[in-house]
Amino acid sequence: MGICDWANVNEKMKVYHDCEWGVPVYDDTVLFEYLVLELMQSGLSWNTILQKRETLKAAYANFNYEVLADCGPEEADKIMTCEGIIRQRSKIKAVFQNARALKKIRREFGSFSDYLWSYTKGKVYVYKSHEKLGVPAANELSTTVAVDLKKRGFVFLGPVTVYSHLQACGIIHDHASSCPAGEIIRRTAPFIYREDM
């Protein structure tokens, strides 16, 4: 087995897998970056998003939610002219809206990180069934988080997108048991093994 199968596409995918994917994240700017990338990925391959990541970072103010929360139609028009980005106005507007919603969560919870990790009480969830039955597109946790995010004003974030985000930021651990990158995380992160999906 070894490394997770999906990471063997190209060097960028492998580096992302080895150094970022599933590593617990507590920094709100990084969490927001992952959220934007997952939002942009909807309907596209993850490889496409990683290839465009630096271009997206430049177009979206280094994923600075403070800056993006103040953006409106003029900034959307400007982003639409950028080369190499995903030119979908609804996604651009969603980034601005989600930045505003994130700021509200920070006011209530202290940080977006505290909000997200509160769902697992600071623990990383490992679902025992995923190794045998396969990783689902969404689960009860991602659905619960997605529903609450929607209530709080977030858009373009259904259970599937939220599941991918929870994987990326390390709240759900879906590295293969034989994966060396996953083993490093499992040695250091606070885990809870789950029997459900």
Protein topology:
Layout: H1 11-19, H2 28-41, H3 46-59, H4 65-68, H5 73-80, H6 89-109, H7 112-118, E1 124-127, H8 129-133, H9 140-151, H10 159-168, H11 180-188, E2 191-194
Parallel strand pairs: 1-2
Helix pairs in contact: 2-3, 2-6, 2-10, 9-10
GO molecular function: DNA-3-methyladenine glycosylase activity; metal ion binding
GO biological process, one term: base-excision repair
InterPro entries: Adenine_glyco, DNA-3mA_glycosylase, DNA_glycosylase
What characteristics describe this protein?
197 residues, mainly alpha, Endonuclease III, domain 1, 11 helices, 2 strands, globular, zinc, metal ion binding, DNA-3-methyladenine glycosylase I, DNA-3mA_glycosylase, EC 3.2.2.20
Could you describe the 3D structure shown?
- GO terms for molecular function: DNA-3-methyladenine glycosylase activity; metal ion binding.
- It comes from Megasphaera micronuciformis F0359.
- Zn(2+) binds at residues 4, 17, 175, 179.
- One of its GO terms (biological process) is base-excision repair.
- The chain is mostly helical and 197 residues long.
- The chain has a single domain (5-194), classed as Endonuclease III, domain 1 (Orthogonal Bundle).
- The chain has helices at 11-19, 28-41, 46-59, 65-68, 73-80, 89-109, 112-118, 129-133, 140-151, 159-168, 180-188; strands spanning 124-127, 191-194.
- It has a two-stranded parallel ribbon with strand order 1-2.
- α2 packs across α3 and α9 crosses α10 (159-168).
- The chain is globular.
- The two termini are 22 Å apart.
- The model has no long low-confidence stretch (mean pLDDT 96).
